[in-house]
Design a protein that fits this description.
The complex is a heterodimer of chains A (344) and B (373). Chain A is 52% helix and 7% strand. Chain A has 3 domains: 160 residues, no CATH class; 50 residues, no CATH class; 105 residues, no CATH class. Chain A is of the alpha+beta class and 344 residues long. Chain A has 16 helices and 6 strands. About 1% of the residues of chain A have low confidence. The radius of gyration of chain A is 26 Å and the shape is globular. In chain A, helix 4 packs across helix 5. The radius of gyration of chain B is 24 Å and the shape is globular. The model of chain B has no long low-confidence stretch (mean pLDDT 94). In chain B, helix 1 packs across helix 10. Chain B is built from 10 helices and 17 strands. In chain B, strand 1 and strand 2 form a beta hairpin. Chain B folds into 2 domains: 195 residues, DNA primase, PRIM domain (Alpha-Beta Complex), CATH 3.90.920; 69 residues, no CATH class. Classes of the chains: A alpha+beta (344), B alpha+beta (373). Chains A and B meet through helix 8, strand 3 and helix 16 of A and helix 4 and helix 5 of B.
């Protein structure tokens, strides 16, 4: 565990040991139930979740990274800790996810600032240490930028779908990738968010008390806004259309093309018998082999591994992607035509 | 394949293996690797463990495989089914194959063999003898193919050593035994990369997915674009050298680029991919469970051996990898393409009975252009 000063805990409250922190400050969770002065903290905590649920970042009371007054720092930490208690009590997964992401983005701002802090070397060192200890990512400072190894970069950047994050669009030299402080921190957002989520999940749910009851009920109502509805269309994505066209023309479809088509249609719920006739025009068609291979993909023979449809990234790398605007934002061909809409 | 041809190949391969044990070794950390082999006309046998050269040599002599493979991956339990092997990491591997290079020479040394009546003919829409439209294409590699594949190896080598900081002693280049080269990277920071991460690395090496912004081109303020310097490292420097050429030409070239637009620059980058990107097969690099042809073994697509290239420039597969003996063999050859092995020219043969050294007979039989039947 990293030892943090008071103002660092306010910036990165998820690093604190919650129970220990309350104890150190001379509080117990029960006091929040009875002490009217602490009601303000509960309200602040609720507000912190509400803001996060709205996709915004909670505006801190911290001014220029320093506390405006003595009480601000603990209040900042308390509101985070109580927000976690409320989330545990309401148990709504969608809210925990949103809260974690918003808190990750909030911490990201401080990390970026600390990383680029030229006047205070200890701040930069702390940011580097947080990144290293939490995410095993070694960041080195080199002139105006930061460098991380290509292998570390790849491990994190593959979570991004924007082309600017592709390694080919980065400055690479001697096995290291050059990044700005903003990019360095952005690279770990997902992991930071996952870290906060797992931290929340690992905390024992405290017993419900009367002081928390009302905000928890409000949170359950709030979470209902985020249930999703799926609208499906029966249209095939362009990569699948292409594969079917190639076969219809009697041309040779590559092994990866056949794998894509087979796994996609199986993923759509079609049976091996329904899919097999599609391959009839293939120049090397052999009914027995086709059925064997489709059954293998379906996991009904062999070691019972069911193969899933490859991701859009993989399809792209195999030159089988023919993306159209309707493909926007999907990461697997199976998502094509399934539009997620929020009830809100 | 006809049984009698199969027997000839098996006898030839067996003799080669017996005489060349010194060329065929298990790679480093053999007990952590998965081995596999194929016999003629039989499916793949894999999930095999071989702990020493001795065990490997025994397998070769007793089974006389058509092809032998070994994983680039390391496992705790290499003989268990894939999901239970406990993957520990894998050497980076690259496959450069001349058939993927879209070379003009290819049509000159490719012919067709009818799937119905086995007639060999120059490529056309249907078989001149039986009119069947189903046929296989057969290609014999030429010097141009090998030379172009070597150029790709050189490009790859430059990226591996400079951009990716891989030490030269950790890179081994092998002739694949047929139409290209296999490059291995061992002991690097990339051993633990997953399949998706390797796919991204392959895109880097192939210069796929580059966007104009990387090279200082602005989408909305196009005229305010700035360009990389010629001496920059990585793709920025390589692109600058390709597009700008020399320092003296820079102002003129930049004026020309500014006179165009963002889309035109993107097109330029896409076109450059074929020039500066190394043309590797990304599917091989991203496969972390592959069993890859074993060094020293014979490739049944040609009868050539997969051999280490100590000096890629001087390497000549038609002599250096053609290691079968020259005992005279009588075959019937339908090989319309002339080829040269061990500095001796063969063909073209028009469905005729000939006597040739074993290495040439095996080559044509492996290519499906001759038979002893």
């Amino acid at each position: 565990m990293i030892n943090l000063g008071q103002d660092e805990i306010a910036k990165y409250p998820f690093l604190a040991d919650a129970g220990q922190y309350l104890k150190d400050k001379g509080f117990t969770l029960e006091q929040f139930d009875t002490d009217p002065d602490l009601q303000l903290i509960i309200e602040k905590a609720y507000h912190r979740i509400e803001i996060a649920a709205d996709g915004k970042i909670y505006k801190s009371d911290l001014i220029d990274d320093k506390a405006g007054k003595d009480a601000t720092l603990p209040r900042e930490v308390f509101s985070f800790l109580i927000a976690v208690v409320l989330l545990k009590l309401c148990g709504m997964y969608s809210l925990i996810q949103r809260f974690s992401l918003a808190e990750a983005r909030r911490a990201e701002k401080y990390l970026e600032k600390d990383l680029a802090n030229l006047s205070d070397k200890t701040k930069e060192e702390l940011a580097v240490r947080i990144i290293k200890e939490l995410f095993s990512l070694n960041v080195y400072k080199q002139n105006d930028y930061f460098t991380i190894s290509v292998s570390d970069y790849l491990k994190h950047s593959i979570n991004f779908h924007e082309r600017e994050w592709k390694l080919v669009n980065r400055r690479v030299e001697k096995g290291m990738v050059q990044l700005t402080s903003h990019e360095t921190v952005r690279l770990i957002r997902k992991e930071l968010s996952n870290y906060i989520t797992s931290k929340i999940h690992s905390i024992h749910t405290p017993p419900m008390s009367s002081g928390f009851k009302k905000p928890v009920e409000k949170l359950i109502m709030l979470a209902k806004k985020f249930s999703t509805q799926t609208i499906s269309s029966t249209e095939y994505p362009p990569c699948i259309k292409h594969a079917i066209e190639v076969l219809e023309k009697g041309e040779n479809l590559s092994h990866s093309g056949r794998f894509l088509l087979g796994t996609y249609l199986l993923g759509q719920g079609q049976t091996v018998e329904q899919i097999a006739p599609l391959f009839k025009n293939a120049p090397d068609y052999n009914e027995k082999v086709t059925l064997y291979q489709l059954n293998h993909l379906a996991g009904s023979i062999g070691n019972a591994t069911k193969y899933s449809c490859p991701s859009c990234d993989k399809v792209k790398s195999q030159n089988l992607c023919f993306a159209i605007p309707e493909c926007d934002n999907i990461i697997n061909p199976l998502q094509f035509g399934k539009k997620k809409t929020l009830n809100a | 394949m006809h049984e009698i041809d199969q027997r000839l190949l098996e006898e030839s391969f067996k003799k080669y293996y017996f005489d060349n044990f010194d060329l065929i070794h298990v790679p480093d950390r053999p007990s952590e690797r998965e081995f596999g082999y194929q016999k003629f006309n039989v499916g793949m046998n894999r999930h095999i463990s071989l702990k020493s050269d001795k065990e490997l040599h025994l397998l070769l002599i007793t089974n006389i495989p058509s092809d032998v493979y070994c994983s680039n991956a390391y496992y705790s339990f290499p003989t268990l089914p894939m999901a239970e092997k406990d993957w520990q990491g894998a050497d980076l591997i690259f496959d450069i194959d001349s058939k993927d290079l879209n070379l003009n020479c290819r049509k000159e040394h490719t012919c067709a063999k009818c799937s119905s009546c086995n007639t060999t003919f120059q490529i056309q829409s249907s078989c001149p003898k039986c009119n069947s439209t189903k046929f296989d294409t057969k290609s014999l590699t030429c010097n141009m193919c090998i030379s172009s594949a070597k150029d790709e190896v050189t490009k790859l080598y430059d990226i591996l050593t400079n951009d990716l900081a891989i030490e030269e002693e950790n890179i081994q280049t092998y002739f694949s035994g047929n139409e290209g080269f296999h490059i291995y990277v061992t002991n690097s920071q990339y051993q633990k990369l997953s399949s998706r991460e390797r796919s991204e690395l392959a895109d880097y090496i192939m210069f796929r997915g580059a966007i104009p912004e990387t090279f200082g081109i602005k989408k909305f303020n196009f005229e305010k674009s700035s360009f990389p310097e010629l001496n920059e490292k990585g793709w920025r420097g390589k692109v600058a050298k390709q597009i700008i050429g020399s320092k003296s030409k820079k102002p003129k070239v930049i004026r020309e680029i500014i006179a165009g637009n963002y889309t035109m620059f993107q097109k330029k980058l896409d076109d450059l991919k074929d020039v500066i990107g190394a043309k590797i097969d990304p599917n091989v690099t991203m496969d972390v469970h592959r069993i890859f042809r074993l060094a020293g073994s014979i490739n049944s697509k040609s009868g050539f051996s997969k051999v280490l290239c100590k000096n890629i420039e001087k390497f000549n597969p038609f002599t250096d990898a053609c290691l079968l003996d020259d005992e005279t063999i009588e075959i019937k050859a339908s090989c319309p393409i002339q080829f040269k092995l061990k500095n001796r020219k063969f063909g073209p043969y028009n469905d005729e009975k000939i006597s040739v050294p074993k290495y040439a007979a095996v080559y044509m039989i492996c290519k499906g252009l001759a038979s002893t039947a």
